[in-house]
Design a protein that fits this description.
421 residues; globular
Length: 421
């Protein structure tokens, strides 16, 4: 069976190299991360959306990345969600989210992140290079939102408020028992972040200049959330038979999206489309930045992560913060014994449901396509396109969010761009 999964052999090889100390690639990954960290003082480019692709754009790779994302949409959506939760450990990302007061409650989080899901989905299924295409308009809207938020948050009169944002601004606490003690107990033996001295901090008196929110490094951090675990562990997210070419295409796709969203080439996490080096960078980033950050997870992190999960549960029934985090920990090799032990039975059940579906059942050809179709249908219910859900009983529909249907071009683009397998 291993012969049928091209990734597992490479994963074993990568793990062997890590254990034996792959000094050459480690040095490259370290150097690349140091370069990315230089972007902390460089704002994201918020000027006009580029009208032509960059010189390094490869249409075949881009299309291959889109096709890969469409075929494995359910697993990729799961990867995006669990990675989003871990991103919230970063104060540089968490504080602006709390300050804007648009995702601290279940309903607000639901509306905010279903919008994010629809925008990203439109990029996977649309043409971001074609003028007036819904995907192209989506990119422009996201740039405008980033520009507005950046101006608001980095304004000299508001920045101190953002820097000092704390749990009090998160609103009414959730009734769920805190899992922070379990998380801290599980991660207490993990090594700290070796780059902590290079990571600019919010509200720090040791920095001559104030922290610049929406900088190039923060955007690269977001790119890792979209590509990291997929590149490292595709077989844990339903992409059991992913080829190297497909993963290179996926990397190239997100390199292009980063370019369109204002990331300079030197700070683009997906620079150069090199699969092996990107894997090494992802592994290094995961081990040296993401895992150590979980040692210092805050109450604000847990509250906002719960808001994300509870909002998602309105169209993904059964989802919880506990089940998503436990699955992420299981995938990336994060200690989670105490965390899992203190989960409720239904949370434990959904955690195992995710493991069985995406790590076992997706070995069966066609299963990932079935779950991807179901995921798209669930999102379509929220978008409320009549051609998606007109026959579905109204009493069984989730909350619907208006204004997103103009980006929901799944059917037309899927038919127009469907390529032979």
């Amino acid at each position: 069976m291993a012969d049928q999964c091209p990734y597992l052999e490479k994963l074993a090889s990568l793990n062997s190299e890590n254990q034996n100390g792959s000094s050459a690639n480690k040095t490259v990954a370290e150097g690349r991360l140091l370069q990315l960290l230089e972007g902390q003082t460089v704002p994201v480019q918020m000027d006009n959306l580029p009208t032509v692709p960059p010189s390094w754009y490869n249409p075949m790779k881009f299309q291959q990345g889109q096709n890969f994302a469409r075929r494995h949409f359910a697993g990729i959506s799961l990867a995006h969600f669990v990675s989003l939760i871990t991103m919230l450990t970063s104060p540089q990302i968490l504080k602006p989210l709390i300050f804007t007061q648009k995702s601290e409650t279940v309903l607000k989080s639901f509306k905010r992140y279903i919008g994010t899901v629809v925008h990203v989905t439109s990029w996977y299924f649309g043409d971001v290079w074609q003028k007036d295409d819904p995907a192209r308009r989506s990119i422009q809207i996201v740039r405008n939102m980033h520009d507005h938020a950046s101006r608001q948050i980095n304004h000299p009169d508001r920045r101190p408020q953002v820097d000092n944002t704390a749990m009090a601004e998160c609103g009414q606490p959730f009734d769920d028992p805190s899992m922070l003690p379990c998380l801290q107990m599980d991660t207490q033996k993990l090594a700290g972040c070796p780059y902590v001295e290079l990571r600019r901090q919010v509200n720090s008196k040791n920095q001559e200049d104030p922290y610049v929110y929406f900088n190039q490094f923060d955007m690269a951090d977001s790119q890792f959330a979209f590509v990291g675990v997929i590149v490292l562990f595709p077989h844990k997210f339903g992409a059991t038979y992913a080829s190297d070419d497909e993963l290179r295409g996926f990397i190239h796709f997100w390199r292009c999206i980063g370019y369109l969203l204002g990331i300079e080439d030197r700070f683009n996490f997906c620079d150069d489309d090199n699969l092996d080096l990107t894997r090494d960078l992802c592994r290094h980033y995961l081990d040296k930045m993401i895992k150590p950050a979980l040692k210092d997870a805050s109450a604000e992190f847990e509250h906002m992560a719960r808001a994300v999960a509870k909002g998602a549960s309105l169209y993904y029934p059964g989802v919880s913060f506990e089940s998503l985090f436990a699955y992420y920990a299981n995938v990336v090799g994060l200690p989670n014994t105490n965390f899992v032990k203190h989960m409720e039975i239904f949370q434990w059940f959904y955690f195992w449901y995710l493991r069985v579906v995406f790590s076992v059942l997706c070995w069966i050809p066609g299963v990932i396509r079935l779950f991807s179709a179901m995921t798209l249908f669930a999102i379509g219910l929220v978008v409320a396109r009549s051609d998606t859900a007109s026959w579905w009983p109204k009493s069984w529909k989730p909350l619907q969010v208006g204004g997103l249907d103009v980006f929901w071009n799944i059917k037309s683009k899927a038919k127009e761009k469907k390529s032979p397998q």
